[in-house]
Structures are given as structure tokens and as C-alpha cells.
Amino acid sequence: MATSLLHIPPPQMLLRPLVVPERLLLGPGPSNVPHRIQAAGGRQLLGHMHPEVLQVMDEIKAGIQYAFQTQNQLTLAISGSGHCAMEAALFNLLECGDTILVAINGIWGQRAADIARRLGMLGTVRWHGRAEGTRFGLVQHKPSVLFITHGESSTGVLQPLEGLGELCHRHGCLLLVDAVASLGGAPIFMDQQEIDVLYSGSQKVLNSPPGSAPISFSERAREKVLRRKMKPPSFYLDIGWLGNYWGCDGEPRRYHHTAPINSFFSLREGLAMLAEIGLESSWERHRANCARLCQGLLNLGLELFVKEEKGRLPTITTVRVPEGYNWKDITAFLMDNHAMEIAGGLGPTVGKVLRIGLMGCNSTSENVNRVLQALRDALSSCHRSRL
Ligand code: PMP
């Protein structure tokens, strides 16, 4: 036998079959993908400029306009996860000399500030602790963009947005909102609430695989991008190019990048399922199952992290890690004994809370009962005095 020229052999692990266990994903995302959406993602590929794919993209655009409640033409899905949409918003909106005011009420404000700071010359970040101080921040710092997270998945807090868009516009500022964790689970009205850039993700309420992220720019935001002196620092995320590829500018569509076509098929189905259920029923479903879960957690003697019911994010519930327990023991117990994922805290809540997500098709009373039963078992098995 001829000696091989290869000094790296084929990896043994790749010669074994792919392993993907069944698991109930009740963490802060991703959530489980229903068969219909899985099947759409498993369809044969088409070319990224084929008319059928462009048609699917038009359908996604209409689905996002519905989910966001907006008529904005510049509405599309970014080829990337929620972070990618966050970067797309910031890279396109901010330029040299701009100031961004970031409302920091959890990890996502911190991340937005981090991204804005990396843009260096493109923006000055003003840290801001609490949303109530926004008016003061707008007057003092005169930002051109205000960033705020609607559903803070690290704390389980739903941020009220009423009046914020109008307030920003009175101060010559654009409103940028992260709705990755809240879209479809809590009411948001992009046009009525005067939100200028809104983005979300595919893997939460939309029950689609991660990797495509809905985003929309208002006319005000589009004009700010058009007035830029320099092109946005990312070619991949240049909203002018993306808008053209998505048929938002009335020009012939040009190749920009090879889009994740199968992810678009899945996202199309995720949005179709939301349209079929209807936004209002979807909000009500998340509200009702979150309320059931919260009551069940209280009945178990646990303490909810967000005291005020109104302030609770209906998609992700945070509950304090009870005295005498380590959160890791509880999450590991659920994974090992119930094939169920729930998560520990993130950013400011690390070590303090457990996070339970009920999103899209996972938001059912049956899943509420399952997770409560699993937690009951965990509480009787994981107390540190027993270990
Ligand atoms: N914003 C919020 C509120 C989120 O919950 C997440 C994901 N947990 C993101 C942004 C980032 O999304 P991704 O992980 O898809 O990049």
C-alpha cells in the first residue's frame, strides 16, 4: 500500500455517527424546534438568488413586519444570531462624533456598550444605570442613539417602552430596542411606540434554529444611515447592501453574501406559525403560562427574582437559588434525570438565580407541570446537607 501524504489522519470522532439526544429546552434559548420548522430547514437547497428564495425572503419580511407591527420597508433578517443584529444596528447607526446612551439593566446593555466602545472613534458610550434616569441622560449627554433591552433575559425583567420613542425624538435621538427574548411573548408595537431600530432572534419564541435575526429600520433611522460621512465599518452588516439584497430599495437585487438559505426556510415557517396563532394569542399564551409557572414556584416555597408581576418577562422567569442549594446541582439534576434544560444566571445574576424559559411551542401548561415536578424532585435530592 502506498504511504499516505497526510500527516493528520481522519478524526476518529467524525467517523462515528452524529449524536443528538432528545431534550426539553426550557432555558433562556434556544427553545425546541417543532417538526414543521425542522422539516423546512431540511429541504433541498436552492440558489441564494433564485426567485423562489427571493420569494421566501419577501414572506419573511412580511412576517417580521407583522411580528414587529411595522410598515418599515427596511425590514429583513440578518444572517447571524441576535448579537449579529445588535452589531448591525450599532455599526450602521453610529459614526464618528456620535454619542450613544445605553440603558444598562442587565447583560445586554453591557454587551451593547462593549460593542459601541469597540467602535472606538465611532461613538462615546455613556453608562446609565436605570431607565428612569433616561430623560436626564438625554438632556445631559445629547446622544444620537438610545439603546434599551425590552426583555432582559439575564434578570427576567420586562422593560416598559411607553413614551420612550416620543421622548427620544423630542431630544433628537433615535431609539434602538433589543427584543431578542421578548418578541412574540410580550406586546411590542414598533411604529406606534416610535422605535427606530428593533431586532430579535430566531431561536426563542419563533422556535427556529439560531442564525437568522429579524431587524427593522424606521425612516428616521434609514435617513441617519444615508447621511453617514463614512461607510459602516462592516461590509457584511452594511444595511444598504442588505436592504438591496432583501428587495427593500426598489433596485434590482444584487448578490451580497450567500445567505443561510435553509435557516431562512425555517424562519419563514416560524413566522408563519406565529401569524397563524396570531400575535395577541401568542402574548396571552406566554402571559398565562408564565403566571402558572410563577404560582407553582411560589407554591414550592421558592422566591421569584422579579417581585412585581407587571415587571416579569413572560418568556423567561427568574427564581432565586434557594438557601442551602447550589444552582449547578439543580440544573445538572434536571439534565441528568429529566432530560430538561434550565439555566443558571447570566451577568449580574450569576449564582443568584435559575432561569426558566417557556417560549413559543414550549409555552404550554404541560411543560409548566413538567418543570415544576422536576424542580420538586431536585429540591428533595440536591440539598447540600444531603450531598
Ligand atoms: N439579546 C437578548 C435579550 C438575548 O436574550 C440574547 C440571547 N440570549 C441576545 C441578545 C443575543 O442573541 P444570540 O445569542 O442569538 O446572539
Automatic annotation (TrEMBL):
GO molecular function terms listed in the Swiss-Prot or TrEMBL record: alanine-glyoxylate transaminase activity; L-serine-pyruvate transaminase activity
Modified residues (N6-(pyridoxal phosphate)lysine): K204
Ranges in coiled-coil conformation: none
Keywords: Aminotransferase, Pyridoxal phosphate, Transferase
Cofactor(s) needed: pyridoxal 5'-phosphate
Annotated substrate binding sites: R355
Keyword check for Transferase: yes
The keyword Transferase is assigned to this record: yes
SUPFAM superfamilies the UniProt entry points to: PLP-dependent transferases
Reaction(s) catalysed (UniProt annotation): L-serine + pyruvate = 3-hydroxypyruvate + L-alanine; glyoxylate + L-alanine = glycine + pyruvate
EC number: 2.6.1.44, 2.6.1.51
Gene Ontology cellular component list: peroxisome
Start and end residues of each Aminotransferase class V domain: 45-371
Biological process terms in GO annotation: glycine biosynthetic process, by transamination of glyoxylate
Database matches in InterPro entries: Aminotrans_V_dom, Aminotrans_V_PyrdxlP_BS, PyrdxlP-dep_Trfase, PyrdxlP-dep_Trfase_major, PyrdxlP-dep_Trfase_small, SP_NH2Trfase/AEP_transaminase
PROSITE patterns from the UniProt entry: AA_TRANSFER_CLASS_5
Protein family per UniProt: Belongs to the class-V pyridoxal-phosphate-dependent aminotransferase family.
This protein's name: Alanine--glyoxylate aminotransferase
